[in-house]
Amino acid sequence: MALYALLDFDTLKKYDISIKDFCKTAKGLKAKIIQYRDKNSSLEEKKQRLLEIRKYWKKTLIINDTIELLPYCDGIHIGQEDLENLSQKYNLSKYEIIEKLRTGELLEWKMDNGKRIIKNEKNFPSSVVNYKFIVGLSTHNKEEILEANKLPLSYIGLGAYRPTSTKDTSNILGQKVIELIKYSYHPVAVIGGVKIYDKIPSKFKVVGSDICRLTSSRSKKRKISKRKLKSL
Predict the structure, then answer these.
(1) In contact, 183 and 146? CB cutoff 8 Å
(2) Angle 106-7-143 from CA coordinates, rounded to 5°
(3) Which CA distances in Å does 185 have to 37, 119, 174, 203?
(4) CA 184 to each of CA 32, 131, 155: distance values in angstroms, whole numbers, following the listed order
(5) How far apart are CA 77 and CA 136, in angstroms?
(6) Does residue 22 contact residue 211 with C-beta atoms inside 8 Å?
(7) pLDDT per position in the chain (232 positions), as tens?
């Protein structure tokens, strides 16, 4: 069971911690993935924060929802409503939407002989050859899992495991996730109120607020230690 760190920008502000410190804690906990979620910032602000995350995080980086920023990441995580809206917007089946997210074909960027050309972006390669993006989809019950089994996803998110303040969690699964995991053909990342030391029989556990709390606690301890040293 690998750790999948959720960097929710509003939660970072709540705990008064930096992107750098969050990434440092995620590294210390041996996280495999960071997902950047930001529901309130502008597109340009999100882009700049992704660039900042990339300075401190060299492993897999996932963007939540914002397909325009997929070129700056390794993949994307979307919700059921997002998938439905994309399907209607492009008049494509859900299967086709997932496929085109994986290949980047939904993006307005230049394709040249199987290469994606990303122009004038500092710290990024000029092209990526035949790259396949990671695509994750949130699920909340058996019916959605069975539907997800028909899609070419990289993984599914399943939850909420516990109540959480970062998003609506009216559907709390608790220990039901253990049984529901068995229905998925895809790797499962358990989401929603998951804590660092929870033991869940899934491929990933997605932890956000608990990492922020730990980071904040360590930051406060460092500040206290510095004040004590200065007083000596």
Answers:
(1) yes
(2) 60
(3) 26, 37, 21, 12
(4) 21, 25, 9
(5) 5
(6) yes
(7) 899 999 999 999 999 999 999 999 999 999 999 999 999 999 999 999 999 999 999 999 999 999 999 989 999 999 999 999 999 999 999 999 999 999 888 875 544 544 555 544 444 444 444 568 999 999 999 999 999 999 999 999 999 999 887 666 678 999 999 999 999 999 999 999 999 999 999 999 999 999 999 999 988 877 666 666 666 5
Provide φ and ψ at 118, rounded to 5°: -110, 110
User: Can you tell me the distance from the alpha carbon of 6 to that of 37, in angstroms, rounded to the nearest whole number?
Assistant: 7
As a whole number of angstroms, the distance between CA 134 and CA 73 comes to: 9
pTM of the predicted protein model: 0.88
Q: Which two tokens stand for residue 79?
A: 């919700």
Structure-block tokens of residue 144: 């959605």
What is the token pair recorded at 51?
Answer: 């660039």
Bridging pattern class, strands 155-158 and 60-64: unpaired
Per the CB < 8 A criterion, the answer to whether 77 and 36 are in contact is no
- Cα(138)–Cα(147) distance, integer angstroms: 11
d(CA 134, CA 53): 18
Per the structure block, which two tokens stand in for 213? 């709390």
Distance in angstroms (rounded) separating the CA atoms of residues 101 and 67: 8
CA distance 88 to 93: 8
d(CA 83, CA 89): 10
